[in-house]
Amino acid sequence: MTRKEIIPQIEILVEADAGALSEQTLLSEITHWDSLAAVGFIAMVDENFGFTPSPKRIAESKTVGDLVDLVIANLKGQ
After folding, report:
1. Cβ atoms of 61 and 53 closer than 8 Å
2. Longest dimension (CA), the chain
3. 8 Å CB contact between 21 and 67
4. Which tens digit of pLDDT belongs to each residue from 17-48?
5. Which of 16, 44, 50, 53 lies 20 to 30 angstroms, CA to CA, from 72?
6. What class is the 3-75 domain?
7. Alpha-carbon distance 32 to 71, whole Å?
């Protein structure tokens, strides 16, 4: 799974148009990013990647890229 393959899954989760998000997109600027989206992100990652991301790390994330980093780091076993 590459970084560019994760972003479309986040777009689906937050009901954004395809290609609307980039790694630099601030989560605070995404209309549908809220606590329910964060829970949905946890479920999506668990289902697609087989691990449960830390809610604390999600809460600390400021950008889409931070969420992607979280997934990639866990896939690499960090």
Report:
1. no
2. 32
3. no
4. 999 999 999 999 999 999 999 999 999 999 99
5. 16
6. mainly alpha
7. 20
**Residues in the chain, how many?**
78
Buried b (16+ CB within 10 A) or exposed e, 5-29: ebbebbbebbebeeeebeeebebee
Gap between the Cα atoms of 11 and 13, Å rounded: 5
Place of tokens 């979280």: 70
In the chain, helix, strand, coil percent, each to 5? 60, 5, 35
* CB-side neighbour CA atoms (13 Å) of 68: 21
pTM of the model: 0.92
Note whether 35 and 59 are within 8 A (CB).
Answer: no
